[in-house]
Design brief:
The chain is α+β, with helices and mostly antiparallel strands. It is about 40% helix and about 15% strand. A hairpin with a 2-residue loop joins strand 2 and strand 3. The chain binds zinc ion (ZN). Zinc ion binds next to helix 3 and helix 4.
């Protein structure tokens, strides 16, 4: 896959994701859930494992996205959208699992695999990164709500 193909995959996934007027991380999460028939939850990493900015635990139908809390709001949002993008692109089907020390006890159900930065090939990373960017532009466009800035991020961080 070339960079052009990676971008095309991201563009197609972005177009396939129908979002209403007020786009937020939360509405993007719900739209991906509906499109893929999965449940996605977003949680702060419960341990000091912040050498990865975010990762996703694949618990079958349930996908749990974990983000490192010690980053700016925008950076956290980007990392979450990046993980969402992998899910929107079905990347967990082909990803290699990683091991995160001392973490497994905290999962809601034992994950089939945990996916982080090293789980995906470069093409998958390129596509996810570009798609995260495309999704973020939909948040900061005219869909941004009057409260400004937060883009509904506090809803998923709650
Ligand atoms: Zn990635």
């Amino acid at each position: 896959m070339s960079i052009r193909d990676a971008r095309r995959a991201a563009n197609q996934a972005n177009k396939a994701l129908i979002l209403g007027g007020n786009v937020s991380v939360e509405t993007i999460r719900k739209a991906i859930e509906a499109l893929r028939g999965i449940t996605i939850t977003v949680q702060e990493m419960p341990v000091d494992q912040h050498d990865v900015p975010a990762f996703t635990a694949d618990c079958g139908n349930l996908k749990v996205v974990y983000y490192a809390p010690n980053l700016s709001t925008l950076h956290r949002q980007h990392n979450i959208l990046h993980e969402f993008s992998h899910l929107l692109l079905n990347h967990e089907e082909t990803a290699t699992g990683i091991t995160i020390k001392g973490f497994s006890e905290t999962f809601p159900t034992q994950p089939r695999k945990i996916m982080g930065r090293f789980s995906f090939d470069d093409d998958a990373e390129q596509s996810a990164e570009f798609l995260a960017y495309l999704l973020s532009t939909r948040i900061s466009g005219k869909g941004r709500d009057e409260r400004g800035g937060s883009s509904g991020l506090e809803e998923v961080f709650g």
